[in-house]
Each structure stands twice: as structure tokens, then as C-alpha cells.
Amino acid sequence: MIGFITALTLNAAAIAPLPAGWWRASLQRADGHTIDFNVAMQYKNGKPVWFIRNATEKIQVTCIEQKQDSILVQMPLFESEFRLQQVNNHTLRGVWIKGTSTVMQVMPVTFVYNQSQRYPQAKQTKQKITGRWGATFIDKKPYPAVVEFKQNGTALTGTVLTPTGDYRYLEGAVSNDTLHLSTFDGSHAYYFRATIKNDSMIADGEYFSGATSIEKWTAWRDEKAIVPDTLSAVYMKRGEDRLHFRFPDLDSNFVSMSDPRFRNKVVIVQLMGSWCPNCMDETAFLSEYYNNNKQRGIEMVALAYENSTDFHRSQKSLRRFQQRFNITYPMLITGVRAADSLRTEKTLPEITKIKMLPTALFFGRDGTVKRIHTGFYGPGTGEHYEAFKKEFYAIMDELLKQ
Known about the structure:
By secondary structure, the protein is mainly beta. It contains 5 helices and 25 strands. It is globular, with a radius of gyration of 22 Å.
């Protein structure tokens, strides 16, 4: 497939512009399954613009270059791009390439014009699954989750909440007794499929992630289902109540919690990565909150765990992140890969094992840790996101009073 990438050549004949409107994209996995999503192509001032749709989310993509029949599309965040060839005015073929902590992930992809539905083959159904469901996923060993559905005829949207965060905006359909949900955000490509046994049981579930990963899952209707946080909890170690890190920011200036800007301030230390969609959602929230409230005596600092130990590669990814969300607080490069099993010991030995990103540590004006929040349920989770914001505002108001 890499050979295909380098083989994209320019045809001598002129190529007609791609038609505006909806396209349906299908990422092809090696096992024959596809991960599908929809893209609205538009033109602004003569330049192409994409809007990738996942339910109510619209991801705008403007970095699109076309030379004859070759098209390069750079996603606005993440190390992620499409390299495509225009077969005709209604078909594009090529690859999606994503940077990881090891090798580049490459997946074949096809775009077909005039397809606004994600699963156009969906047939009428008598099944109704709107509501909250408890679930168990199996990735080597079982873990709990909550699945939420909103169904309108055959149209289906929803999300999955796990101990590490949410799977963001899912969109799909119910066809006869089968449900389909998928999402693509430039970093993660997911497809969920399962059989609806009856009004209270979903079985034979399969969750396809990226090029090769697959998990089994089942679900049962439970409007009171919750995700236990004991699997994700992080604590300060006995006898510790402060952090003593010192890492370079994006301009190579070292920053630590002992710096004057943090003294007598309520501080949030965000553990994140530019490759992480949940971190993206949390950063969007934190950046807006900080820019609107920093005059109250609030500071923030992000510690980034990237896919590489290469400073310049991490710097490039984080710069795009910084610009996208108008981040005005320091972003520090830890120099430790997110996948490093010793990332906690190498960066923050004062806390127990970092089980997930994002994780946020709340500090009082005295410089000690008052609260640790792991994971993040973003705007795709609806009421859970609203509940998080309410709790966050209350915590910050209380710390500011102290």
C-alpha cells in the first residue's frame, strides 16, 4: 500500500473539480470490515473545504491540496492525512495515514459521491433501543461501560462511556435486528455492530477500532447504569501533596510549579496528548474556561505525553493543538511516550500510576493537590458533559474561596 502512495501521479489531462455535496467514505480493514463516515465537500472562495460529520459534530478541514488527480488532505489535528486519487467525478480512492508510537498506520479508503447516509442499506425495523444500557466489553479481559442510544426510525446516534472516557459522537442506523454505529475524527476510527435480541438485550456485539483491533461486547437495558471510577482512579502517594516537575514548553523554556506565575493561584495540571480525542474535548473546555476566568487567580499547565520522544515531532503536533484551541497557558513536552509503561515514574513519581489521559490535578492556592479527575466525558455525552461542567465550576469556585 505504501507503494500506492508514491505511485499517485499527475495526469496530463485536466481534471474537473469535485462536485460539492455529501460523500460517503469507507476505510477498509484487513478483515474485510469497513469503518464508514460522511463528508460534506464545499467550496469557499474557490477553495475546497470538508466537513466530516459524526452525528451533531462537524469537523472542518481546510488544508486540502489538489494537483490534477492527486489530492492531499491534512486533518486539522493529530498526525493524520488522506492521500487520494480522483478516479472520476464521483469516486476517490487512496489511503488514510496516521502517526502512532510505532509504525505509521495506513488504511485504504474509498469516497463515493451523493451518499449522505452512513448506512444506506438500512431496512425498516421494529426494534426500539433509545435509552441507557449497561455493557461489558472484552479486551483481553472484561471491562464495564455504558452505552446510550437515540433512535429515530432507522437512524441511530449515541456514545459509549468507559472508565477512560467516552467514544465521542457515534452515528449509524438500525437495520432489522442489527445496529451499526461508527465515527471518524482523524485519530480514531470506530465501528460498532451488534444484534438486538429484544427490548432489553443486545448480544453478539463487535467493536472494530482502526486497522486491526476488535473487541466483543454485550449490553442490557439499565437506565441507572453507571461506569465505576475505581478502575481509573489516581492518587497522590503517601506523604506527597505537591508535584516537582520541570519540563520545556513549546519554545524550549523550562517551566515548573515553583515558578512565580503559579504562586498563590488555583492551578490545574492537565495530563494529555495531542493524539487523544478525549484530550481534545477537555482542552477545548479548559482553554475557554481559562481565557474567561484567569483574572480570578487561576492558572493552568498541560503536560504532554506524545507518540514520540522526538521533541520537534511533538512540538509540531502540539503547536497545531495550541492554535486550534487558542491555548494561552503553558504546554510542556515531557519527552516520554504515552505508551511508555514507566511514564508515571519518569515524569510524576509523586502520584500513583497514570491509568489514562486526560487526567487533571487541581491545586489550591497553597500549592498542594486538592482533587484529581481522571478521564473526560465530552460534549458528545450530553447530560454527562453538563454534569461534569457543573461539578467543575463548583470545585473551582470552592478552591478560589480558600
